[in-house]
Amino acid sequence: MTGPSARPGKRLVELPEEVVRGLEERMKGSAFESVDVFVAYVLARLLEGPGPGAFSEEDERLLKERLRSLGYID
Asked: CA–CA separation, 65 vs 74, rounded Å?
């Protein structure tokens, strides 16, 4: 999501508050200075992994089910 508060070369992403709280809890005691930095790090590592086809059909089904339960997809 881009918008007036997005910095050049950056995008804004909205996360449910319960997800942010969980990330903050997971980050405790780490060197990450913010949820933004932590999420950027995790996503960058994800992109380094295997490319297309890395998810099995079952993995994809479970992921879609979870995204649906969080309200991200219909």
From this structure: 10
